[in-house]
Structures are given as structure tokens and as C-alpha cells.
Amino acid sequence: MDYVKLINCMRCGMCxxxxxxxxETFLETASPRGRVALVRKVQEGQLDQSERxxxxxxxxxxxxxxxxxxxxxxxxxxLVAEFTCxxxxxxxxxxxxDLILRKxxxxxxxxxxSMAPMRAYQRTGLQKLVRKLGILKMFPKQLERMEGxxxxxxxxxxxxxxxxxxxxxxxxxxxxxxxxxxxxxxIFSDASRxxxxxxSALGYKVITPKNQVCCGAPNMLGGDLEGLKEAAxxxxxxxxxxxxxxxxxxxxxxxxxxxxxxxxLEGDVPATEFSSKVRDISxxxxxxxxxxxxxxxxxxxxxxxxxxxxxxxCQGIRKEPRDLLKLIPGLQYTELNEADACCGxxxxxNIERPxxxxxxxxxxxxxxxxxxxxxxxxxxxxxLLQLKKGLAEHLPQVRIxxxxxxxxxxxxx
Amino acid sequence: xxxxxxxxxxxxxxxxxxLTDRESLAVYGYDSTPxxxxxxxxxxxxxSTEEVARxxxxxxxxxxxxxxxxxxxxxxxxxxxxxxxxxQTSRLNRLLxxxxxxxxxxxxxxxxxxxxxxxxxxxxxxxPPDPGSMNISTMGGNVAENSGGLRGLKxxxxxxxxxxxxxxxxxxxxLRTGGKVVKDVAGYSLNPLLVSSEGTLGFFTGITVKLIPxxxxxxxxxxxxxxxxxxxxxxxxxxxxxxxxxxxxxxDKVTIKxxxxxxxxxxxxxxxxxxxxxVDGHPAVVAEEAASVAEICKKYxxxxxxxxxxxxxxxxxxxxxxTALSALARLKPTTILEDATVPRSCIAAMxxxxxxxxxxxxxxxxxxxxxxxxxxxxTCLTDERDQDEIxxxxxxxxxxxxxxxxxxxxxxxxxxVGLAKKKYLPKLVGESGIRVMRGIKNAFDPKGILNPGKIx
Lengths: 413, 456
Fold this sequence. Notes:
The complex is a heterodimer of chains A (about 425) and B (about 450).
Chain A (H helix, E strand, L loop, with lengths): L2 H5 L12 H6 L6 H12 L7 H7 L7 H5 L6 H15 L4 H10 L3 H16 L2 H8 L7 H9 L8 H4 L3 E2 L7 E6 L2 H5 L2 H13 L2 E4 L9 H5 L3 H16 L5 E4 L2 H7 L2 H4 L4 H9 E3 H7 L1 H4 L9 E4 L3 H4 L6 H9 L4 E2 L15 H4 L1 H18 L3 E4 L2 H14 L4 E4 H8 L3
Parallel strand pairs in A: 2-3, 2-4, 4-5, 6-7, 6-8, 8-9
Antiparallel strand pairs in A: 1-3
Helix pairs in contact in A: 3-6, 13-26, 19-22
Chain B lengths: L2 H11 L4 E2 L2 H6 L14 E3 L4 H14 L3 E4 L15 E4 L6 E5 L4 E4 L5 H9 L3 E2 L12 H7 L6 H4 L6 E7 L5 E5 L12 H4 L8 E8 L1 E2 L3 E9 L2 H13 L6 E6 H11 L9 E9 L1 H17 L4 E4 L3 H7 L1 H4 L1 H8 L2 E4 L9 H14 L3 E7 L4 E8 L4 H20 L18 H20 L12
Parallel strand pairs in B: 2-4, 3-4
Antiparallel strand pairs in B: 1-2, 5-6, 6-10, 7-11, 8-9, 8-10, 12-14, 12-15, 13-14, 13-17, 16-18, 17-18
């Protein structure tokens, strides 16, 4: 951990109103400024690395809203994540972490196979039965929550269905590599299919390398730095073998991680080059707004947009998704209050810290209700999972869609 | 702190709202003041006025010190406690009433300043004080510190808006001062005394502030001046022309360079000063005043002048000022932000003193701030690990404060004395000033348990 990054915090407090957990608790220990101070005091030997201290730090969503608010460029969320990751890696990976992070996540085939029972569980009607009988009440709370978050799964993961090369429609303007996120492929395959169609419709040849592996974000979360570097290496080498203008993703979380490969594999030229080519889908589409506009058919919908943390705070992308939505004729765009506040999904946070996650989700749902929107658009699978469940339970009249799904709908693709 | 005493505190506010673990105490050991830290004995988050009164009564009996705290954005160490009880107002954060007939708002101390702005502006009303930290600062903190802000020149500071206070005294008794009446000469005026008392005289539990109609429109302008003296003369000339801008902000050469390096907003590096000017009010008046401002800036040889044509342009023009602190703060780990204030006719002379002191002590000081009201923010960029440089920075500031006093100014315009400026206060107010202040403190808090060690 770089000590200067910690002492750069001047404790001005500008991060406090941006922090979802501070807004819920008003506790300094639950604030970005407080977390930086705790980490700093451990580094300075003034505080021990107690269970309680780690418990305080674990309340951080790592949404990085604090980084957007900080006048001096301190990223408290990232510092806490780094600190936690270092602590976890010191103590070595546990059996479950090793199983998931090393034996499952880096191998798309195994990951997909592991979902098969879930798919069968839904298709055979077993899910309905289980839910009806309340069987899950007998299992640990976390399992019940995980099950509740799972939407209907597509018949097959997109990775297995999609062709490695999708040609451009009309004159080819360039080539992009498509980074297909694990959750997008396994759960939100319709959205990623729409992404590929949009790129192709705008004249891009789209290469989706079959052997790409998970971006590594779960490894970072689990304290597996080695696994993260391995994932980065594999993907950098794989995409390096193709001549592409951009590496595009429609997953906010993957995009944020891919843009950091240059940092993870420090000094590695291909990794830096890889990261410099990474774009969120909204960035590429916004480049071609003029060509896109004539392809869009009217949609008579009231729409609002939720900024995923990994897109707004980690990548600084706010304008492009909104501009794209406003391009659609007939669409009434309303801005969501606190649009860039976390929805409480935050990786596995909604399973690990259910109580705080629910409080944060409730605030988000209240804002969505107040916006009067019929459709909520966002562009990150974590947010899609969390908000889909939240809307289904509390605001069933509001539909949630990925940005590319709505654009594809307007293009009647 | 003794366990039996902590247990008594717990019976008042509840276990959940009594923090005594090492980690919590550590993070309540600071506020926004650089270099200062001290550990409290306990942190309490009361949920009602009654609980505050009971805390005060208990602490008064036991002789335990109490320090009120809002969001902990104090810039003079005022919310720090050495071994005492810190009482955070965050749960007392209700907006109790907006009285549109009497044009007042009554709030609890923990209400965030900008939340009050939003609520009153939605009703076409206006609460002008806008400290830089308004998105997190609390009304209680603003009152205790008499916070200023960008709009101070035209609209005044917090003290100009406080009409009534409900205060829990050191012994737990309740004191009500003022109210919703515009005129009130019954006895000593205690409100102005309590405002800016920095938590040393009482604990505010209710605050009634004056509201005014919201200005109908505003115009934003930006001017670049190649010569500092010209910018200073333009400021004086604007006021002399009987135009009182809502905002009249200034950036010096060091700040301009930092802003440009960091944010690339298109500032030229060959100018000495940038002025950001906003006039607000009735559309006809605003148009007339904006024309005068343009004419004056041109007369004093500005090299660039722009009037925003719409809100988006206005936002762009204010960008340099908004990013000033960020741009400066990024250069070095430690940022010491001061608020020496002089009569506005002395601004040019004060800037010269700041530049000379920075040079003499070999430290980097960027200055920006409220040119219109003479409240400057010389900001020293340093590194707390470099003790020699820190010493030189303090020496430079000591000189700057001396100069401010000599010009008829003050050592602090809006941050308060707290711990950080204690040693400079006697120079400003003299022995008699300190004696009177001590007398007042004794009248309110004879046992000296309220935020001890602050101011003097």
C-alpha cells in the first residue's frame, strides 16, 4: 500500500455526502474519510488490525462515489479494497475461495457447467415448488438471498451460441473485440446479443474470442492477486492476437477492471495498450450518434437512468448513456435523483451485508418511484440483478433494461 | 473514562449510540483541520433535545467535558476533544418548519446546510449562507462558527440570518433567545453572542433563521487581468459604482497555473488574476449591473471578459473557481487553508504580503477567495512529513496574520479560532478583549466543561 495515497486525504469531508453507508448511518467509521484514517492508523502502528476494524472496513461498498467527490484525488474505496485484498492474500485462500476463484471462475466451461443445475432447477419447475414450499427457509440466509436474486436464466450461455466473428452490416468502418462478461453471458445474454448487433449495425466487425476468461474482478474481491494477474495475462495475450480498434464491453464491472490491466501488470506494454483500447459500449455508440439516430424508431416511454458505480465513478462515464437515450424519438427522459448513488449490489455485498444493502436499495427504489419512469435503464449486471429483484418486489410496474436492449428495441433489431 | 460513567451515558442515549471502541474514538479524533488530533473518551449520538439536556446534566455533575460536533468539517480544530465526550448532532437533523408568513425556517442542529437550501428554494425562498462545505456542514456547526461563504459580500454571513436559538446550557438548563420577531431589544442581545461561540457557551438544539425571497435571476461573468493591481482596482471600482455582486471571487497566479495544469479549462498562464463575478436580483437590475461590471473590467485593462449567455455557460465560467481547491490540494499531500481577512480596499496589499512571505520562507502558497469581502484563502501546499517546511509554512502564516491585523483585518474570517488560531487571538483583541471573553465564558459555563481549551 502506497502511504502517500493515505496521507493525501486532507479530511475535508467532501466525501461524506457522497457515501451511501455514511448517509445511512452518519458514523465516521462508515465514511470514506474514516476508512482512510483507519487504514492509515494501522499502517502507522497506532491501531491493530482487529476484527472490529476489518468489520468496519467491510461495510464499504467500494462504489467509489467518494473518489468522484474527493477534491484531492484520493480513492478511499480503492484503498480499502487494496488493503482488504492484501490482508486476505496474506492469510492465503480458503478452500471455498480456492475452489471458486482458481478452479471455477477462470474456466468458462466449468463456470457454465456449474450453472446447469440452476437452469434445470428453473426449467423443471423445481424453483417454483421450492419457493412455494418455503424450503429455502431451512437453509442459511445467504443461500436464500442468492436464490432470490437469480432471474430466469437463458437456455444457453451466450458464449456458446455467439459466432467468433460477426461481420459488419454494410461498409466496414473497423473491427472491435468484444469482451463478454461472465454474468452477461450466463444471465443477461439478450443484452449482450443486442450489443453485438448494434456494433455490427454501425459497421463494426465484432470479434468475440471464445477463450476469453473472467476479467478478474472477483479475484480482487477475494484477495487473490495472483489469480487476477493470471486472468489479465490470458486476456491481454488473447486480444493481442487480433487487430482491433477498440475492446468493447457492455459490463460496467468488467470495463473498470479491464481498464486497470495496465496497472495490474505494471510495466507490461501489451497490457497498457490493451487497457487503452477498452471502451464501454456507450462510449463507442456515442461516437456514432449521427449514424445511429436515423436507425432509431420512436418509443413512447418514460425512461430514467441509473449510473452503475463501475461506469460513473470508476470510469467517469455519465454523459454518453444519457445522450444515447435522448436520441430515441418519442422517449421522455427524466433524470433520476441521486442517479449515481450505489444500488447496494456491489459485487457480493448484497449477500454479505444484506441489512445495509437493503437500506441502500430502498433509497434507490424510492428515487425510482419518484421519477415516474416506466423503464429503468442501466448497464451493469450487478445493478441489473439487484434492481430487478427490488423492482419485482416493490415496483412491479417499472421494467428494467440494459442500455443496449432499449436501443436495439428502438432499432427493431 | 470510567465504565460506570459510560454505562450512565448508555442509559441516556442507548448502547447503539454510545461509541467507545478504539476504532471509533480514533476516527472522531480529527476534524478537517490539518495536523491536529486528540482522542475523545466517548462519542454520543443523542436523538432528542431531552437526551442532550440529560447528557449535559450528567457531565456537569461529573465534571466531564463536552464537545459538540456536526459533520466534523471544522477548520480550526473546534470539534476535537481531549478525553471528553463528543456529542454528534447527526440524529437531530429535522427541518421543523418553514414559516412562509414570517419568512423563517426552524431547524435542528444536525440538518445539512444544503438540505435547507433545497427545501426553501423549492418554495421560492432563499437562505443565503453557502460555506464551501455546505453539502455536508450542519446548521448547528454553521451557527457555532458563524460560517460565511461565497455570497457573503451581498448577503452577509450566518449571524445575519439567525433570529432565534434554543440552547442547552452547561448545567443542562434550556435557554431560549430571540424568536421570529424582527425587532427585539429586551435585554442583552444574546443571539450574536451565541453565534460564533464555537461550542463553548452552549449546545444548540433549535435554530430559527431568517429567509428572504429568492433572487429572480443572475448573470455570471469572468474576467482575466494581466496585472494584479488592475484586478484589485476593478474590485474597488465595482463596489464604488454601487454594484454589490452576489459573488466576487478571485484566483491568483499560482492557483491559475494549478487549475490549468489539472483541469485544462482554458486559462491563460500569463495573467496575474482571474475574477469571477455574479450579479443577481430583478432582471432589469441584473442587466444594468452586468453592463457596469463589463465596462469597469474593460476600463481596468482586463485581457478577456465573458458574460454567460445561459446556465450551461455560467457553469463553465465558474469551473476554474470551483476546481481551485482541488487543483491546489492535489499538488502536495498536506494542504493548509487559511482565511485571513482584510478590509477589501487592502486586498492588493494583502496579496503582496502573502507573495512576499511565501518567497521569504520558501513555501508554495496559492491564494483564491472572496475578493469582494476581503476574505482570502491563502493555501499552503506542503507535506506533513517535512517538519522543516511545515515550520516555515507556519512562520509565513504568522507574518500574514500580523499583516492582516495591522491593516485592520482579522486572523480568521470564517473558520473560527478553535485550537488552531488561539495563539494569535490576543494580538487581535488585546488583553481587555480576552478578559471580557473569559467573563462571558464564566457566566455561561463556570465549571468550564463546554468545549474547553478553544478560542482562548
